[in-house]
Amino acid sequence: MDYECKVISNVCLKGDYYRIVFSAPEIAEKAKAGQFVHVLIPTLKDRILRRPFSINDTDPEKGLLTVTYKKVGRGTAELALLKEGIICRIMGPQGNGFSIPDEETFPILVAGGYGSAATFLLAKHSAQKGIFLMGARSENDLILVEEYEKVNYDVRLATNDGSVGHKGFVTELLDDAIAAAKGRKIMIYGCGPEGMLLALGRLALEKGVKAELSLDRNMCCGTGACFACVVKVKDESAPEKWRYSRSCKEGPVYGAEEVYYG
Ligand SMILES: Cc1cc2nc3c(=O)[nH]c(=O)nc-3n(C[C@H](O)[C@H](O)[C@H](O)COP(=O)(O)OP(=O)(O)OC[C@H]3O[C@@H](n4cnc5c(N)ncnc54)[C@H](O)[C@@H]3O)c2cc1C
Ligand code: FES
Fold this sequence. Notes:
Blueprint: E1 2-14, E2 17-23, H1 25-30, E3 36-40, E4 51-54, E5 57-59, E6 64-70, H2 74-81, E7 87-94, E8 105-112, H3 120-125, E9 131-136, H4 145-150, E10 154-159, E11 166-167, H5 174-180, E12 185-191, H6 194-207, E13 210-214, E14 230-234, E15 242-246, E16 253-255
Parallel strand pairs: 8-9, 8-12, 9-10, 10-11, 12-13
Antiparallel strand pairs: 1-2, 1-7, 2-6, 3-4, 3-7, 5-6, 13-16, 14-15
Bound molecules: flavin-adenine dinucleotide and FE2/S2 (inorganic) cluster.
C-alpha cells in the first residue's frame, strides 16, 4: 500500500546519520521488526525511483513511523533537507521481517552501521532482553546505542579502528554472547553490510545456532516486479543448487540456512 505521510521531524543524530519521523498511522499499526518502507522523496528530480529504509521504530498510538538513515548519495542528501510538514509517498510495510522471539528465546542482535535501525523494534518488544552486538568502522558510525540500553539490552561494541569497544569485527564478539546465554535457546538476528552478514550466517551454522539475516540489496520497484534486488538462496532442485530470490518480496530477512554462500 502507498500512503501520503507528513514529515513530523527530521534531525541529524551525528555526522551523516539522521532520523526522520513521519505521520504514517496505517504503516505504524502493521509494521514489524525487519520490514522496510519504500520512500518517494518528493524533491528528487527523478521522481520515479524510491529509496528503501528499515522501519526503525513505530508509535502505533500516535501513528508515528521512524526511519534512521545515513546520507550516502543524492536521495539521502535530499531526504536530509526535508522540512516538517512536507508530504512523502511511502509504501509499506514491505518485506517479511524478522520472526518474533518467544518467551524462551534469548535474542542476540548483531548490527553493522545503520543495520542497528532494523533490529531495534525487535529489542523493544522481545520478551527476554538479550545482547546487542554492534560493529562499525569507528565511533562516528555507532548509532542508536543508547536506545538499546534504554530497552535493557546488554550492549557490546566493536570498531575496526578500536576507537570504542573491541578492536576488530563484531562477529568476534559472538562466542562470548553465546556463552552468556547459559544454555538458553538462542536466536541470532543480523543486519548490516553483506560481508558481515555472510560471515555471521556461516558462524551461526558452524555453531548450530539459528540465525536470521536481513540482506539489504539495492532496490528498484520494491514490490517484486523488476528483479533488481535478487539474492542467491539454496535450492536443491536447481541444477546449480541455488536460485535467485527477490529480497523485496521473499526477504529481506532470510534464515542463515537458506542463504547460498558459494
Ligand atoms: C531493505 C533495505 C533497508 C535499508 N535500510 C536502511 C536504513 O535503515 N538506513 C539507511 O541509511 N539505509 C538503509 N538502506 C540503504 C538505503 O536504501 C540506501 O542507502 C539509499 O537507497 C541510498 O540512496 P541515495 O540516493 O542516497 O544513494 P545512491 O546515490 O543511490 O547511492 C550512493 C551510494 O550508496 C550505495 N547504496 C545504494 N543503495 C544501497 C543499499 N541498499 N545498501 C548499501 N548501499 C547502498 C550505492 O552503492 C552508492 O555507493 C536500506 C536498504 C534496503 C534494501
Ligand atoms: S526491487 Fe524490484 S523485484 Fe525487488
